[in-house]
Amino acid sequence: MNIDFTPLYRNSVGFDRLARMLDQAMNSETSSGYPPYDIEMLEENHYDITVAVAGFDDNELDINVENGVLTVHGKKEASDKERKFLYHGIAQREFERKFNLADHIEVRGAELKNGLLKIHLVKEIPEAMKPRKISITSAEGRQLEHHQEKNSQAA
Q1: pLDDT of residue 26
Q2: 8 inside domain
Q3: Residue 73 has pLDDT above 60, yes or no
Q4: Could you give the CA distance from residue 91 to residue 50 in angstroms, rounded to a whole number?
Q5: Number of structural domains, the chain?
């Protein structure tokens, strides 16, 4: 299924990444669900991704961020010791999990504790992207006041 994003481009600028993400989501294969994970909002601009990685050591996990995609990869090292399981229910297979990050989301760190890998994320909007008031100058170069400000001063 293809979606035409042309109408979006008529009235907006810079949404090509969003279109790519939607296209990837539509064309990607369904995930196996392994390993399970949680995404938690701690505060307004602070998030944690928690991935259940039971049986993996920190040296068997790899976390990368590239082009707005956070990738968590796990691969068990080969064991010299041969083990004989009567029942083997703890999955320790190689995996790769990808998370698309919104603009201005930065990975601040990660920790492994009790079989859970927590990845700490923060959304930091650059000063240039924050809302700001724009003053208007007349053709003669003097600054004009906003109509609303004049009315509030007269009251």
Answers
A1: 62
A2: yes
A3: yes
A4: 17
A5: 2
